[in-house]
Design a protein that fits this description.
Blueprint (H helix, E strand, L loop, with lengths): L1 H27 E10 L10 E4 L5 E3 L5 E7 L3 E5 L6 E4 L5 E6 L9 E4 L2 E4 L7 E5 H5 L17 E4 L10 E4 L11 E4 L2 E3 L31 E7 L2 H4 L10 E6 L5 E14 L10 H14 L38 H5 L4 E13 L3 E13 L6 E15 L3 E15 L34 E3 L10 E3 L14
Parallel strand pairs: 1-7, 13-16
Antiparallel strand pairs: 1-4, 2-3, 2-5, 5-6, 8-9, 10-15, 11-12, 13-14, 15-16, 17-18, 18-19, 19-20, 20-21, 22-23
């Protein structure tokens, strides 16, 4: 009986506490109503977001700009809308509010480059996207197109791979043609034309005019002030049919009025491949091939089957009883051999700029040396840029824009490469290095006599038959 009384008292106490908490909470929450209007004409704004700061409570204004929301007393309302400055309003005893929002004109007053000069954003009716120098400087690539990745809506930029000289794929609002899909590039008002600009290189009709090296690596991204993408017909009309796939305008830096400014920046880094393929070692590889053959052996012509050592396409190197058996050979990691474990990224720039009442100037010099993640891939570039503009009188302006570039590339897809990236598929028992070879590498070919000016008599270390896959060390 005593226990029941104690439980009853606890229950009553908890009930009283719950009622008090509910009453206090009910006293703290109030219903606020009001309207949100434009500061320029006091008209109601629809679709404005009204939320309680620090809470998940929120609402939007109706077609006339009116709203109603339940919020704690003395809370802060956050009022925001596109193209308007966000406001935070402190609530008090007044339950009816009139909130005034001012237009946000900073973006609309921003000056952008278009096909025939510059305009304020609010005066441009075409579809454009602009990336400024701050965003460009975040990219470590030697090509300015990669600065557009993820920065411009409707623009797709796909990297050409780890090669610093590789040509990225740039598409403005998709592909409009199978044979000609690249946008037109315009640097300081000068269109850049390049042969073979189709989606694929025509090796038959245009074999020499376009190389795998990206032409735009001649531009130092550190010299770029802004990149503007013209995306629709009205924005690209001034370029005619050349702008059918979009136009990318690159504007280089110029001096600004004030004291002479000297900018120095440097970048040094390294890159590595985060993950690699898992390959079979030599015993595993030999066992895999042997098991596959034993599952479907060659017939011997007498109703029986041949062992793998007797099969014409395999031979004694697959026979465990043969002294030429490959299963006991060491394993060589060809994948690791072609990876550049000391792949560096270097970029150094110096810029001097300034301007007076009638003249502005910008002089810059840069050096870049980037390796690829694999051996035999490198781009080294020296660049000097001079940009001088002067006003002569009220209506005449003269200028000089000079850009000198020396660029040296090493590309694995050409004959100057030291590594074939497909070599990672080599047999695991094939040696990589040979101390007896003057060049240090294990030979894949043997040179046979006679040798004539028109004939090079060579034999591969292994031929089409797997019985010729013999380690060089044997």
């Amino acid at each position: 009986m005593l226990r029941q009384k104690i439980l009853l008292r606890k229950f009553l106490c908890m009930l009283v506490i719950a009622c008090v908490c509910y009453t206090v909470n009910a006293q703290q929450n109030v219903t606020l109503s009001g309207s949100v209007v434009d500061s320029s004409n006091n008209s109601g704004l629809s679709g404005v977001s009204v939320t309680v700061k620090g809470k998940r409570t929120g609402t939007v204004t109706d077609a006339n700009g009116n709203f109603k929301i339940t919020a704690p007393q003395n809370s802060v309302l956050v009022v925001s809308s596109v193209n308007y400055k966000t406001r935070e309003v402190q609530t008090g005893n007044d339950l009816s509010l009139t909130i005034v929002l001012a237009p946000s004109s900073s973006e609309l007053n921003e000056v952008v480059v278009i096909g025939y000069g510059t305009r304020k954003k609010r005066d441009v009716i075409g579809s454009i996207a602009t990336v400024n120098s701050k965003d460009i400087e975040k990219s470590t690539a030697l090509s300015p197109e990669l600065a557009l990745q993820g920065q411009a809506a409707g623009v797709t930029v796909i990297s050409g791979g780890g090669d610093p000289a590789a040509r990225p794929t740039v598409r403005v609002r998709g592909v409009s043609s199978f044979n000609y899909a690249d946008p037109l590039y315009v640097i300081d008002g000068i269109p850049i034309e390049e042969g073979g600009r189709g989606a694929t290189v025509d090796a038959t009709n245009d074999p020499t005019r376009r190389t795998p090296v990206n032409l735009l690596t001649i531009i130092n991204p550190n010299d770029i002030e802004s990149i503007t993408v013209l995306k629709d017909a009205s924005a690209t009309a001034v370029y005619g049919v050349r702008g059918a796939n979009g136009v990318i305008l690159i504007t280089t830096k110029s001096g600004k009025k004030g004291r002479v400014r000297v900018d120095v920046d440097g970048l040094y880094g390294s890159q590595k491949i985060p993950d690699t393929y898992s390959f079979l070692n030599t015993p595993q590889y030999v066992k895999f091939i042997t098991d596959a053959y034993n599952a479907h052996p060659d017939p011997d012509g007498n109703g029986g089957t041949l062992t793998i050592g007797q099969a014409p396409s395999f031979g004694p190197v697959w026979d465990p009883s043969s002294p030429r058996y490959l299963g006991n050979s060491p394993t060589y990691d060809w994948q690791n051999a072609i990876i550049n474990h000391n792949s560096k990224i270097q970029n150094y720039n110096v810029r001097v700029s300034g301007a007076s009442d009638n003249t502005n100037y910008n002089v810059s010099a840069g050096y870049a040396n980037n390796d690829g993640p694999f051996l035999g891939v490198n781009l080294e570039r020296y660049s000097i840029s001079t940009n001088v503009n002067s006003n002569i009188g009220k209506y005449i302006q003269t200028g000089m824009n000079v850009r000198l570039i020396q660029e040296k590339t090493l590309d694995e897809s050409r004959g100057d490469a030291t590594a074939d990236l497909n070599i990672y598929k080599a047999a695991p028992w094939q040696a990589i290095y040979d101390a007896n070879n003057p060049y240090g590498y294990a030979p894949l070919w043997t040179l046979n006599a006679p040798i004539t000016p028109s004939t090079l008599n060579i034999s591969p270390v292994w031929q089409s038959g797997l019985d010729q896959f013999v380690p060089v060390s044997n």
